[in-house]
Amino acid sequence: MRSTTWKGSVSEMKEYKAKFTRLIAVYGYKGVASAVLGGFVFATLIFLPVFIALGEIASLYLHVIALMSAIIWAMSELYVFVFSRLVRQALVLKNKDSGVDHDYLFMVHWIALSALVVFAGLVYFIWLMPLWF
Amino acid sequence: MNELTNQYWGAIKLLAIPYLLFLFLLFYPIQYSVTAPGGLTDVDLLIEIDEEWVQPISGSFSTTYVIAIPRMTFFQFIVGYFSPQADIYQLAGDNLNYSNEEIIQISYLDKATSVQASVIVAYQAAKLVNPEIEIGVIEKVLVFGKATYLSHYQDIAFGDEFVSMQGDNGLVTQFEQIGPNSALTNAYDFTFLREDGTQYTVTLTKDPTQNRFGLTLKRYYLVDMEQTTPAFVEKPSLIGGPSGGLLQALFIYSKLVPGDITKGLNIAGTGTIEYNGNAGYIGGVKQKIITAYYRGADLFFIPYLDANYAYDNYVEALRVCEELGIEPDGWLIPVSSLQDAIDYLEGLGE
Fold this sequence. Notes:
The complex is a heterodimer of chains A (133) and B (350).
Chain A: H1 2-60, H2 65-94, H3 102-132
Chain B: H1 2-27, E1 32-42, E2 47-49, E3 60-69, H2 74-82, E4 87-90, H3 94-97, H4 100-127, E5 137-146, E6 161-167, E7 170-172, E8 187-193, E9 199-205, E10 215-223, E11 232-234, H5 245-256, E12 266-269, E13 272-273, E14 279-280, H6 285-294, E15 299-303, H7 313-324, E16 332-335, H8 338-347
């Protein structure tokens, strides 16, 4: 069983590597960096006022800080989703017939970034929040 | 990047103005302040006493802080307006002239001097139980307020110590003598001492219309560390204001005397402390009650100085408890002094 799982993971890694290599081959590092930058700028422009507004609301509802933190956490997940989606869209707009599996790469990158936000949230809730509040 | 810009250019043009308007609401400060519920701070994190002298306690003492934003944004005004827990005030008096940074500086000065007052009062109370405890006190006159017309406004900082003034009849070191010794001319040399030990002299000129220098000085009693046993350390804190005085004094007292007066309870409260041990009024009663209740304090001490005064802290707190459906009996404890609070805790369980 363990061996099967390990083999499956290796196969998935290989698949990801092949698709990512194809992405770089089609768009080049510059093209991918431009799409990532575009996704970041647009997602940040959309979410910056939202995060500031949530911060200002949280400052007036500090007695329910756990709830406010959970909302900000959920919003961070949404930010990561929109960012990943915009990167995907920028790449598609660059070359519609590239043959790159955008949906697969979007899913992998989104899950990876999402996992980072989940980890950061857990560190905050378990360790930092009891320390600060 | 360009592909996304081209794709969404229509939406960008359409939403640019509402977007900038929303940013304006989020950033533009207005002359209103808001007070909202905050949190509890364990006094153990603020004051550390020489551990050889410390008595173990099973419970805890917490001061209650509220969020006070001196110049809130339009957006916070809207949120605060619809929040049943928050109170909004128009800035008035000195606070109208002070910048947000200056208001924060004053609140930190209030905090630092309230810790000193708490130590003095608690050590004096504990000395009655343990005569080996010693407390040395020094008197200082500190800058507490500055009017907009104060000359050398930027040179003089809140908390600077008044040392002397070159008056009409010689050197003045008592601040009560400034007025009688500054009648002949408009400009006088004042000497101040910074917290870092720097001494400086500035020539202050009286405002022609007010006939005043525009400086508010206040007498404080601070702990003389060399004459004080046991030693203590005040740890850094981001929370300002004097309203933790009573609970800080209670905590220090409980650490210095034998017998656990906390009885395992999480004790919260509010109230300033005066040098004679009396409690003093605080602001933001409603928000402090909400904070302590939500954070699960077992009991809450609050100043009760005048039953006939409609805005007495305890009278106001009773109204808040009724409004929020909190049962005040056994939870909301009115006290007028440190001794009142000690007596209450010592009487628990009898």
